[in-house]
From TrEMBL:
Residues 118-129 have a biased composition (Basic and acidic residues). Residues 110-129 are annotated as: Disordered. It holds the Pfam family PhaG_MnhG_YufB. The lineage of its organism: Bacteria, Pseudomonadati, Pseudomonadota, Alphaproteobacteria, Rhodobacterales. InterPro entries: PhaG_MnhG_YufB. NCBIfam families: CPA3_mnhG_phaG, PRK12674.1-5. GO terms for molecular function: sodium:proton antiporter activity. It comes from Roseobacter litoralis (strain ATCC 49566 / DSM 6996 / JCM 21268 / NBRC 15278 / OCh 149). PANTHER family: ANTIPORTER SUBUNIT MNHG2-RELATED. The chain crosses the membrane at residues 6-33, 45-63, 69-90. This is Monovalent cation/proton antiporter subunit G. Keywords: Membrane, Transmembrane, Transmembrane helix.
Length: 129
């Protein structure tokens, strides 16, 4: 086996892995009902699927020509921004309050209320002079 055949097998393997992860993400978007659980499908499986496609593209470009590192930059951007966007979507879902908050336990009145007690705040509010 020469280098081109091995490189072709590596590219095909990355493409198949990417297709499987993308299919899992699509099925997850269809089957999961709650927005918070539906959030995991595109942020985890689709990110790995697209990452595999980009690795396949990079592998193919290095095998057939001089190669390109643009895919590495796209992959880094994708892995940095996917958790941040998922965090923002989750915060929007929490602040929409589409369901009632659970009752607070008797010991801690601030439990699950999205508010910080006065004593735990880092920023001190001073009145204007």
């Amino acid at each position: 086996m020469n280098f081109e055949v091995i490189e072709l097998y590596i590219t095909v393997a990355f493409l198949l892995i990417g297709a499987v992860f993308t299919m899992v993400a699509a099925i997850g978007l269809l089957k999961l009902g709650d927005p918070m659980t539906r959030l995991h499908a595109p942020t985890k499986a689709a990110t790995l699927g697209i990452g595999s496609f980009l690795l396949a593209s990079m592998s193919y470009s290095f095998a057939t020509s001089e190669g390109s590192f643009h895919e590495v930059l796209i992959l880094a951007f994708l892995f940095v921004t996917a958790p941040i966007s998922a965090n923002f979507i989750a915060k929007v879902n929490i602040h929409k309050r589409s369901c009632d908050m659970p009752d607070a336990p008797t010991k801690d009145a601030m439990w699950s209320t999205m508010d910080v007690p006065e004593g735990d705040r880092d920023i001190e509010v001073r009145p204007d002079p």
